[in-house]
Amino acid sequence: CLAYCFAAHPITFCIKAPEMTxxxxxxxAVDKSNSxxxxxxxxxxxxxxxxxxxxxxxxxxxxxxxxxxxxNDAIVTQSGEGNGEREVLRSEGAYxxxxxxx
Length: 102
Description:
mainly beta; six-stranded antiparallel sheet; 1 helix; 50% strand
């Protein structure tokens, strides 16, 4: 789910996205009638926002050599346990997602 705030009233809504494991996204999963070849993308970064429309804070998550890192201003730490993928995929406030084509 994505959450947005307009004025003083928060609005939360869900967007159905293609199945995303973090490692790959099959954009053809949305339209099964599509007969074109499969195109796969890997998620490699996110920008997350907390706060309101008028104020808030942005952080990012970046994947480098299979390890996820959480970037909060000048502080960069490894995300969660293992390679951090679960932490990134469950983080709230996803504002932008960045993919690279396989």
